Amino acid sequence: MTRASLQYPTNRCRYTSRGAALVVVLFFIVFMVSLSMVFARQMQTEAVTAGNSVSQTQARFVALGVIEAIKADLQSSIDAGDEPTIDFVEPQAQVLGDGMYWIIAHDFTTDEEATFGVVPESARVNVSVSPPDRLALLPGMNTETANAIADWRDGDDEVREGGAESDYYLAQRTGYDAKNSRFETLEELLLVRDIDSTILFGEDTNRNGVLDSNENDANATPPEDNADGNLDVGAYPYLTVYSAESNQTPDGGERVNINQGGEVFQLLRDELSESRFNEVSPRVPGGRPFQNELDFAVKLRLTDEEFGELENEITTSGQPVRRGLINIMSAPAEVLDLLPGLEPGDGQKIVNAREQEGESMLWLVDAIGQEKAVQAAGLLTTDSYQYSADILAISGDGRGFVRYRVVIDTLAPDGSAVEGPRVVYTQDITDLGWPIDPAIRMALRAGTPIEEVAEQYRSGVR
Ligand SMILES: [Ca+2]
Ligand SMILES: [Ca+2]
Ligand SMILES: [Ca+2]
Ligand SMILES: [Ca+2]
Q1: Hey, what domains does the chain have and what are their CATH numbers?
Q2: In whole angstroms, what is the distance from residue 145 CA to residue 122 CA?
Q3: Is 341's pLDDT higher than 70?
Q4: Which among 12, 42, 240, 274 could disulfide-bond with 124, CB atoms 3.0 to 4.6 Å apart, if both were Cys?
Q5: Can you tell me the distance from the alpha carbon of 410 to that of 395, in angstroms, rounded to the nearest whole number?
Q6: Residue 150 · residue 178 · CB < 8 Å
Q7: Could you tell me the CA-to-CA distances from 401 to 66, 392, 404, 405 in Å, in that order?
Q8: CA of residue 152 to ligand 2 center, whole Å
């Protein structure tokens, strides 16, 4: 990891040349969206009665334009030789063609207003990888449900304590086998014993992260909620099935396994001064086996700068793909708390410390102590190769809107290398209803120009 990869998208200077290329792509997207709308209007003259569905079609083209813009944004960072990042696509009250869009995100610290952004999937807990004792800590889960999840994904038919394997599922009215393989979508969780939409979505039935009035009135209106003034968001916003990265070096080479053979000595000789090489290399044999890269840095007593040069070149894993690593730079405190060996409060310490200057992940030792840092480090990353977007798009006349949840992966299907952005999941969740301020739709319906509405809602709306 270099410092550049730590600078989550705050410093925009280095993106200047990328920006110019991306502007061309975005211009093309706007052009295509507008063109689609012209066709949609022409169709309207042939079917006057279908007015609202034409607006719906316009909204759909806006959403599809947003997906293309996100892909172009990711591609431009890959083209620049960086790990994929979102640097240009703005998420809140943006005009695209003749419509507007928002990208709805989730902020665990508030249920009073919506937050917006494209979410790195490595900021979530991977339900295919996370140990059951960690899954049990998620809202709505317990040891039995977590063990049922672990049984569902593990390759054997041995039932964990309180868990469930094929014997259980086959005995149900609609019998099916336990998958015995990793999850491919989050909705697949609904096939696991005891997991239902209440566990996944809690009281937040419209999945906007906001406590809406119907979600806080007990059973006066659906859903049934506990009317305690707090939104139970369920497990869904914490979870992913997509997070994965290749175990290659940033330029596509093989990483050096620090637990085997003599290659690591050559690497140390290449990267360190002669005096430092003579100092630290004798510590390698006694330090083996290293738990992970951070353990290596601690045992060899590397400096922050030295470890910064080495950490993306080394590994303790023989696997071509590493699944479920959690992004230490963008995961919320609530997710970081779920790392093995950490306890509630450690996540917040990490969040407080992660913006400090540094060349490597060594700052984690200062933030939460050496023992915890080394235990957690094997599951940490600073990158994300998969991004999800919950896109809300509305036609300029306010009569049609759509909401799509999409996941975009930049890795090849086998996960072994970066290939380029592709959509791996799309779900139409328009029927959950309009999830942000209803005044936006009313203003557009009343004929307020979209630029005016966008200006008004670009900041500080729920
Ligand atoms: Ca199993
Ligand atoms: Ca809600
Ligand atoms: Ca209710
Ligand atoms: Ca509640």
Answers
A1: 3-120+384-433 (no CATH), 130-181+186-240 (1.10.40), 248-318+341-378 (no CATH)
A2: 23
A3: yes
A4: 240
A5: 30
A6: no
A7: 14, 7, 10, 14
A8: 30
The CA distance from 187 to 196, in Å, is 10
CA distance 338 to 85: 24
The whole-number pLDDT of residue 16 equals 52
What pLDDT shows up at residue 29? Answer: 75
Name the residue type at position 366.
Answer: D
Ion ligand 3 neighbours (CB, 5 A) are 214, 217, 225
Model confidence pLDDT, tens digit, residues 56-114:
999 999 999 999 999 999 999 999 989 999 999 999 999 999 999 999 999 999 999 99
Return phi, psi of residue 401, to 5°.
-145, 155
CA 335 / ligand 1 centre spacing (Å): 25
Ligand 3: distance of its center to the CA of 195 in Å? 20
Nearest to 301 by CA among 314, 282, 316, 315: 282
How far apart are alpha carbons 402 and 394 in whole angstroms? Answer: 7
Let me know: does 86 contact 70? Beta carbons within 8 Å. Answer: yes
